[in-house]
Amino acid sequence: MPVLETKKLLETKVVDEIQVVVDNDTSRENVTRFLESQGYLVSLEKREDEFCLTARRKSAPGTDKEAESGKIVVVIDGETMGRGNDQLGMVLLRSFLNTLKELNPLPWRLIFLNTGVKLASEGSEYLPLLQEIAGLGVEIICCGTCLDFFQLKERLRVGRVTNMYEIVSSIIEASRMLKP
Predict the structure, then answer these.
(1) If you classify domain 2-63 with CATH, what class do you get?
(2) 139's torsion region: left (phi>0), alpha (psi -120 to 50) or beta?
(3) 48 pLDDT band (50/70/90 cuts)?
(4) In a 3-state reduction of DSSP, which class is residue 125?
């Protein structure tokens, strides 16, 4: 419960310093780990039957080096999300792409492979959505081998053509990878 309460507070406002009082070792450890994951330096004061954790933000919001270097890459390797019903999979993929626009931070790159390259090509119902995502500063790259295979290279309408070296390098460089 102390972690959830601390998280709620931090979600409502920017806090440079916070004190959390807990009454057991487990809560102390959990709250400390959570605050450190949020960019705080935590000090501890042991009182009679409780612990007082004082957390100070290491740096101003948005300037933490870890946050700046965090890159999210999304790999889309098909025309649907999940396995099973393709019609449902298309609905889920559209919802997934719409949700990406709401992420903070936005993904660094969307990588399209295999039949996923069809989504970024002429005639795709996803083009306006992908163009909107690209307009937000998200880089869209599409596998050149895949575009050649499906004879779509000349019909690519959003993003740019890339190769496997850049795809693998992007995945390695990313701090997180999502795959619908």
Answers:
(1) alpha beta
(2) beta
(3) confident
(4) coil
| pTM given for the model | 0.63
**Residue 76 pLDDT exceeds 80:** yes
Q: Please give the structure tokens belonging to residue 99.
A: 């949700």
70-178 is classed CATH 3.40.1260.10: yes
Q: What is the model's pLDDT at position 43?
A: 92
Q: How far is residue 13 CA from its own chain's centroid?
A: 21
| Helix runs in the chain, H state only | 2-12, 25-37, 65-69, 86-100, 127-135, 144-149, 164-173
Are 18 and 55 contacting, i.e. CB atoms less than 8 angstroms apart?
yes
Sheet hosting strand 40-46, strand order edge to edge:
17-22, 51-57, 40-46
